[in-house]
Batch of 3 targets.
Target 1
Amino acid sequence: MILKTFLALIVIGLVFVSNAQNKSCCSSEKEMSFSKFSEQKEFRDIHQIPAAFTLKEAEGKMITFKTKDGKNANVYFVESEKPTNKYIFVFHEWWGLNDYIKKESDELKSKLGDVNILAIDLYDGNVAATREDAAKFMQSVNRERALNIVSGAIDFAGKDARVGTIGWCFGGGWSLESCIMLGKQGSACVMYYGIIENTPDTFKELNAPVLGIFAEKDEWVNPEVYGNLEKNLKTAGKKIIIKSFDADHAFANPSNTKFDEKATTEAKKLTIKFFKENLFK
């Protein structure tokens, strides 16, 4: 009788452990990184190959700066005409720092005025022309190297800089990640349909309010995922504004067949308003 009871308890314990492991697995899948997303054919296919585009009469220029690992980092730098301590870090989507991202950087500068724009290249010079290359480049991003690049951008801006961040898709997560790194220098974070693995503890060092722009039809950064992000930020006592559109992932990319011009126009207005209220206050 004692042996049977002991064996029954062991079975119950194994079932409990198995259930806990399954629950943990499912939870991590919801918060999986974009590098994991790129392993899925459906995720790759939803990103249409960018139409050929060359930015003419660019307002900025490519520059480099040293990083702590002894290498050079590349950024597209749009400098303010007047001296200012205000910066916006721009993070590219999974295609890399292409002319579309440079155009977005120029547009931010023209709409906001006295601000320096740093469009940061996390692919170290690689720009994808195919889905396969985009997936390869995104999967090959070394986290330590990426953190060194962001740290170098923070050093470039200087200790007195007030910084806003913005990014799309892969860059949306890095917009939030970099704003956490910025600590008290971070003033405003905008992230388009991006995500990082997070708990309330993740945001201890976050100083900036967050504007999260998401797509309700997004199968990856879906309402449950960004709802969890909102919950964890609020639990951490941070300010977040969520705006979701009846659109699909990458809806703000004009080269995507899922491009939603109306939603993109509204999202851009919200972005400019958010930066003016928080970075320029």
Target 2
Amino acid sequence: MPGRNWRNVADWLVRWLWPLAVAGLLGLTLLLLHHELRAFHYRDIRDAVRAIPASRTAWAFFLTVAAYAALPGYDAVALAYVGHRLSATRTAFASFIAYALSQTLGFHLLTGGSVRARFWSLWGLSAAEIASAVSFASATFVIGLLFMAGLALLLEPAGTARLLHLPFASLWPLGLLFLAIIGAYLWWSLGSRRPLTLLGWTIPVPSPRLALAQLGVAAVDWVLAAGVLYVLLPSPPPFGAFLGAFLLAQLAGLVSHVPGGLGVFDTLMVLLLAPHMAAPQVVSSLLLYRVVYYFIPFGIGLLLLAGSEVSRSRTEWTRLVGRALPPLVPYLLGGATFAAGVILLLSGSTPPVHSRIASLQHLLPLGVIEASHFAASAAGAGLIVLGWALTRRIDAAWLLTAILLALGMVASLTKGLDWEEAVALGVVLTVLLPSRRVFYRKAALTGEPFSPEWVVAIACVLGVSLWIGFFSFRHVEYSSQLWWRFTLHGDAPRFLRASAGVLVVLGSFGFARLLRHAPVTVTLPGSAELERVVPLVRDCPDGSAGLALLGDKALLFDEENRGVLMYGVAGRAWVSMGDPVGTPEARRALAWRFRELADAHGGWTAFYEVGTDDFPIYIDLGLTLRKIGEEAIVPLDDFSLDGPNRRGLRRRQRDVQKEGGSVEVIDAAQVKPLLPELRRISDDWLESKRTREKGFSLGRFDEDYLRRFPMGLVRVNGRIVGFANLWSGHDRAELSPDLMRYSSEAPVGVMEFMFTELMLWARAQGYRTFNLGMAPLAGFEERKHVPLWTRAGALLYKHGEQFYNFQGLRTFKEKWYPEWHPRYIASPGGLAFPRVLTGIATLIAGGLRGVVAK
């Protein structure tokens, strides 16, 4: 128990360490920003924003257009790298949407990479080409960052050192190091033709032309991006020194994983530019920079994405929503909804434009304005939670998000004529409404697992909005009477009441999660559930579905009783035995429900002994597939004992028949009277093998279980000496023996004899295949570049005979010349995988004791 507690603590630390580190970094930046702005008021920043000349804003817009026009260069170079060129229009279209979304939402590989994969796959790129192109574009981004930083540090070595407040007279050695790295990269592309192998990945050498194109595209991108902010500053330092500081702040924002580097990048720029201009001037320029360079392109990108889908025919739209969009849309809409909530919260923490409030007083009573301010902030709190729920594809989240977005739009107008907010929320609502079918899951919001990243993100947004509010109203004397002051220009009281409402909304949600039902206890099925699963097993072509009737695994049914998933739990390992059973739609729904059930209990999801048919489902679940062996399938259409290859089988058949051996197949209804005799044989077999009953992935001697199947019996002179219950696939697709036992009185080779006779009987009965079961670790190749798991499996297969008869089992099954079909385990990777394997071994052995002892 203490060991388990320590493991739980370690798991908790691993899951929460990085999100809490990001939160701590954001908190530190707010403290630094608070220190820099301690002598200023909100109105100073507001006045500084208004003081920015229209000409500088126009230049910022022009440079932003130029910057986004240059960004498709990243994609063009990447597509040329993989040898699949697209038209300039298509390249620019996908690139703009990808960068408009990823630069604002962050998580570039998830957001931008998903957008590229979405469009590029429609335009003919393979999955391998997409992965290589996205990776190459990311490499170009990093290479460009090093290149421009090196140039900046060489061109303005002293100015950059002073701007960064470093105790060095010059930074030219660092700049020279960066450029040396770029030079080595160019030399590699010029002189090498051997691909680079790094951490198991083979990276082809780009041509010198492509390598130079990478530098050119990145240089133009970074110069234009920095230029947008540079032209908004009233008295900036020399551009070379500014560029070095800009790149450093952008790098810090990227490393922090905060969307758009919000807060981290801004605080660093305030600190670095402090010698040249007052903090309010920098903050005002940064605010306008974010609107121009991030938020406006983000809104346009969302509209373009929605328009590109809605413009298709209704049939095509339905197909895409059902197949191509689900991996992408939930995350994009979740991020956009979260951003909409942030907008409402920050708006509620800052004073409105007084001229607009004055206009409202002639149209609306004060009570409506007060209620609208409160409702907008409460809607913002709800939206930052629903952003997470949308990523989980919850159907109720779609409806609630649509309602809160509409409420936020109305409240934005009635609380202060904030039409800009209303437009931003309207853009998100426009994209959300056509995507109804993407959100199909029936689940309770309070019952879903909440990741540490989302918890910390919500806490950070709440902290930032409160900080901005108290900064905006730092001149106000706070007292208890302030809560109950209702006046047209009572901005501070409205902020306090709205903040209290936000805390109530988020606190109520958290409290509801604390009071949600206790974790579901995994219960084994009763007779009613077992009877419910019988038709599903009967209609399944895979005979191993009969394991659902063993009664040692929990059963998870879909809502329409079209499928079932059997699973067990050992520690944190939640293991499905085989693929879900049922229709394709039911299997997909059950896999997702099982994943969510495991997540809700902090468990790891695994699917054991699965085939290749449902690979797309497991990939969508984020699981890693590893081969665990091969299954021997004997085709029965042309099976016979004729020919030289079957000489050994014929000899074994004659030897056993000479001793009076024969095989008989009886129906399930005839099994019950024979159970006492079969029990004697089973106990004899267990004792002679010095082993105990197993389970989970194979049958055990259970009378209720065995009575449900036909039985193959081996008799010697009329006396039963061996048996095997038989799984039968739907429409005689497959016959497979399950529990196989024989007594010490059985002749030598009785199992080989029984299998051969059963195959002959199955062929005569019209069965198409005979399943001999899996050979663990079979088919593993010991090659240099295969994954570590495959190499370890091949080594164990080759040298692990003292632990298990790996090679002998495969050799035994090879006697019937079967077709070998690979079987896999789908599970989390990393350090969780060994513990999942331990959990599976525990389930099969019936407990930890069975793992270490027979």
Target 3
Amino acid sequence: MTPRAPRLSITGLMIGIILETGNLALLGATRKKFPDIIETTTFQLGEVSLTNTKILIVLISCFLMFALHQFNPTH
């Protein structure tokens, strides 16, 4: 099984490159924007500007890290 592993990983990498290149050829390389789910509000704290979206991402990430920590078997 070991001799085939490098060949399979190279094949998988090449298929990924072919799919990505084909996607760029068919759809073009222009950026496409998803519609906003919530309206963006900007908060200015001195020199720092934060949006409600960035604050929400940090809060959700902290919650998910805490939730995943609860599944630790040594905890």
